[in-house]
Write a structure and sequence with these properties.
The protein is α+β, with helices and mostly antiparallel strands. Helix content is 48%, strand content 22%. α1 runs parallel beside α4. The protein is globular and about 45 Å long. It starts with a helix and ends in a 10-residue tail after the last strand.
C-alpha cells in the first residue's frame, strides 16, 4: 500500500507539472502574439487531445517529425481524428528546455514563428511530456494550431 501511495503521488505530481508547464508555455506564446496586436490563442480540448496523441505516437514509434514516414501519418491526421476540420499547423520541439525557453526557441525559428503570429490561428492545443526517446530521457513539446474552415481566403 505504501508503494501505491508513492506511485500515485508521483503520477499526480507529473500531471500537475505538465499542466503548469503548458500554462507557462502558452502565456509566453500569447505574449508574443499580443505584442504585435494579435489576439491570444484559446485552448481547444480537441487540439489538446490531438497534440497528446501525436506526442504519444512519436514516442511509441520512436520518430521525431511532422510526418511518420514509416506509417505515412501526418500531424493533420491527429487533428482531424479529434473532429477539428479548420486550417491547422504544428510546432514540435524536443530537449531539456523549460517552457519559456521552448517558446523562445519556437519564436526564433521562421517557420515556427509564422505559426505563432498567424492571425488565422485562433485556437491551440499543447502537450508537454518527459519521455524516453532513443534510449535517452528528454522532453517533447507538441503544439497544434487551428483556425476557421477557410471562411476568410487570406487564411491558408
Amino acid at each position: 500500500m505504501k508503494y501505491l501511495i508513492i506511485l500515485f503521488t508521483l503520477i499526480t505530481f507529473n500531471i500537475s507539472a505538465q499542466t503548469d508547464s503548458a500554462g507557462v508555455f502558452l502565456e509566453h506564446i500569447d505574449s508574443i502574439r499580443t505584442s504585435i496586436d494579435i489576439q491570444p490563442l484559446m485552448l481547444d480540448s480537441r487540439l489538446n487531445e490531438s497534440a497528446k496523441l501525436k506526442l504519444d505516437h512519436m514516442v511509441t514509434h520512436q520518430y521525431f517529425g511532422h510526418v511518420d514516414t514509416v506509417n505515412n501519418i501526418s500531424f493533420r491526421f491527429f487533428i482531424i481524428d479529434q473532429g477539428y476540420y479548420g486550417i491547422s499547423s504544428e510546432n514540435i520541439l524536443r530537449g531539456y528546455v523549460n517552457p519559456i525557453r521552448a517558446a523562445k526557441l519556437f519564436d526564433g525559428s521562421p517557420a515556427h514563428h509564422n505559426n505563432i503570429v498567424n492571425p488565422c490561428f485562433t485556437h491551440t492545443g499543447i502537450a508537454i511530456r518527459k519521455v524516453v526517446f532513443r534510449n535517452k530521457v528528454t522532453i517533447f513539446y507538441v503544439q497544434h494550431f487551428g483556425g476557421p474552415i477557410r471562411l476568410n481566403y487570406d487564411c491558408k
